[in-house]
Each structure stands twice: as structure tokens, then as C-alpha cells.
Amino acid sequence: MAALLTGNAANASHGRYTGSPDLTLTTQMVVAGGGPSNFSSYKLFSDMAGSHAAAEGRSLAARFGAYSVAQFFTTFDQFVHLAAVQLGSQHVQLPKVEPLSGVLLAQELYRAGIMPDHRYDVGYMLEHLLSRPMHVALMNAVNNDPAFGPAKNARFHVILTAAMQDLHHLYGS
């Protein structure tokens, strides 16, 4: 497989996932968000949170500010767009999948972020979905983009962590 997608599942340490990416779960997440060309993190979030989406949105806005939450969705959309470009340039085709329910998808994504020491880490989840090299490349691209930068990238990771932990507390695993 392409250089950005290589890894060995036995080599997970220090909060880094170095195994092969779970492209099936990646595809299920992208499909829930509207597909690669129409991806919306807001749609993904609404699907996973279901009837709790409005309350969770208010909770995130109260904790992080409405502007930061809006920027989180914009950054997430950019992250997925850049990932699609990277996958395309590596000639990686996402598998055909059956969509998961929002609850099951939230549970599976949370599980993808559980490190060997049983703690949840959003970076580990992203590396599980895409690979460590691709996660690092995407973070660098977002950090170097004047429309985003390191501060917005950091807030993206913090808010995504909070949202995933909230959904985990809501649904369990």
C-alpha cells in the first residue's frame, strides 16, 4: 500500500497508532457525513448525536464558544477534504460499505481512539482511521494553511475529543 498508509498493528505505543488504517471505518464515517465530495462534519455529528445533537451542540458552544465550535466544523471539513486528496494521490480507493447507525458509528469511532493503556486519544483515533503518517501530513497541511493554522488545529482536536467523549458517555461502547 502507499507510503502514507503503511504501518504495523503491533507497533502502537506512546499514543501513536502505527498500524494499518481501518479504511472501512473511515469510509463509514465519510459516508455518514455525506460522502467524499459532499462531506459535512455537521451532518456527521448530527447523525452520530441523533436526537441529542442540539443539546450537545449547545453544550460544546457553552464550553468552547460558538465561534470555536463553528470553526471546529470548518476545520473538520477541511481535514476530510485534505485526506480525500491524499488518498486520491496515493491511488487508494475507499471500500464499499454498509452504512452504520449513528450510535454504532460513534461507538466504533470511540473504540478506534482507545490506546493500549485504555485511555481515549483523538489523535490515535485519527491515526487508526488514516495512518500515523497521513495524520501528521494532514496536521502539517492544516497548520501551514493561513485560513487555519496551529491554534485552530489544536482547538479542532480538543473539541473533537470532547464531542467523542460526550457521545461515549451518552451511548457507552
Can you summarize this structure?
With 173 residues, the chain is mainly alpha-helical. It has eight helices and no strands. It has one domain.
Structure write-up:
It is a single chain. Mean pLDDT is 89; it is low at 1-13. The longest helix has 24 residues, at 66-89. It is built from 8 helices and no strands. The protein has one domain (20-171). The protein is mainly α. The chain starts with 22 loop residues before the first helix and ends with a helix.
From the alpha-carbon coordinates, what is the Rg to the nearest angstrom?
15 Å
Q: Kindly state the mean pLDDT as a whole number?
A: 89
Tally of helical segments:
8
For the secondary structure, the number of strands is 0
From N to C, what is the helix and strand string? HHHHHHHH
Structure class: mainly alpha
Model regions low in confidence, pLDDT < 50 over at least 5 residues: 1-13
In percent terms, what proportion of residues is strand?
A: under 5%
Number of domains: 1
Helix content: 55-70%
Cα end-to-end separation: 31 Å
Largest sheet: none
Shape: globular
Task: Write a concise keyword list for the protein shown above.
single chain, disordered N terminus, 8 helices, mainly alpha, globular, 173 residues, 0% strand
